[in-house]
Amino acid sequence: MKNTVVTFQQAKEKGEKLTMLTAYDYSTAKLIDESGINSILVGDSLGNVILGYEDTISVTMEDMIHHGAAVARGVENVLLIIDMPFMSYQTSVYDAVVNAGRLMKEGRADAVKLEGGKEVCPQIKAIVNAGIPVCAHLGLTPQSINAFGGFKVQGKSEEAAKKLLEDARAVQAAGAFAVVLEAVPKKLATLITKELSIPTIGIGAGNGCDGQVLVYQDMLGMFSDFTPKFVKRYASVGEVMKEAFREYIKEVQSGAFPSEENEYKMDDEIIEKLY
Ligand code: KIV
User: Judging by DSSP bridges, how do beta strands 18-22 and 39-42 pair with one another?
Assistant: First the structure.
């Protein structure tokens, strides 16, 4: 059954946990969709795990549309959320609506996600008014990494915790249908979850949130540049891939691959005429 923003709201009301993973390409998205997950996020984390940048700052609208559209072609049931990249919405309300519209029209998103609290509420309101569902993102917002001075847990002091709670209330009032809480202490994320009527999706925010999201390469053990404390590894796919690559190299070098079962046949008479 197709997941929608209504599914998200119903899950919150029934106390059912929401599940979300990132994806950036057709075949992975298809596998995740078939596994019965609620939502796929085409995160701007693609800057790190797909494009090899050290942060998400360089990710462009074209990157998000290119990967978003590939994911959209692979899914049937998930709520597909595409991230608004750095400087696609911070610059003005007009830019935010135009770029959110492009992610819907060209990337075939069901919803968009953007980072920030009170300061981006005019953008959230305008995008929602244009008929586009918005997921907010608070706590450690990687597009502001230079302002934070690194990847750090957010909301630990009284002042920071108050600000995060106020931001969460503000994005809800602006019309966001959900909010991602990243790298926030469990107690604060649980409090915010209880305060809000929209679902919270945690990543490094403990199990008191209404749902969870992880970057799929992290949970499958496919990305080793850095692994945050909040990641749980569910498989060592990176090792399985390397083992298969090594086996392939060995078999090509020895001539064991391709074998008869991988070959196409033709009549001997035809080939003999060519000599
Ligand atoms: O870009 C991303 O993958 C994200 C998740 C980590 C929430 O924003």
Answer: parallel
- Written as six digits, the tokens of 192 are 């915010």
Binding pocket residue ranges, ligand 1, CB within 6 Å: 22, 41, 43-45, 83, 137, 180, 182, 203, 213, 215
Ligand 1 pocket test, candidate residues 18, 19, 39, 41, most atoms within 8 A of CB: 41
Strands (E) in 159-217, as ranges, are 178-182, 200-203, 211-214
Count of alpha carbons within 13 Å of 252, Cβ hemisphere only?
6
Could you tell me the CA-to-CA distances from 85 to 39, 46, 56, 58, 93 in Å, in that order? 19, 10, 8, 8, 15
Q: What is the pLDDT of residue 118?
A: 98
Considering 182, 195, 239, 243, which one is annotated as catalytic? Answer: 182
Q: Tell me, what's the pLDDT at 188? A: 98
Please, how many CA atoms are within 13 Å of residue 219, restricted to the half-sphere of its CB?
A: 13
- Beta-carbon contacts of 35 under 8 Å, excluding residues fewer than 6 positions away, are none
| Closest residue by Cα to residue 161 from 178, 195, 185 | 185
Cβ(230)–Cβ(239) under 8 Å? no
Stretch (H or E) spanning 102: helix 93-105
What whole-number distance in Å separates Cα of residue 143 and Cα of residue 56?
A: 6
Q: What is the pTM of this model?
A: 0.96
Q: What are the tens digits of pLDDT across the range 233-268?
A: 999 999 999 999 999 999 999 999 999 999 999 999
Spatial contact of 216 and 32, defined as CB atoms under 8 Å apart? yes
Query: For position 197, what pLDDT does the model report?
Result: 98
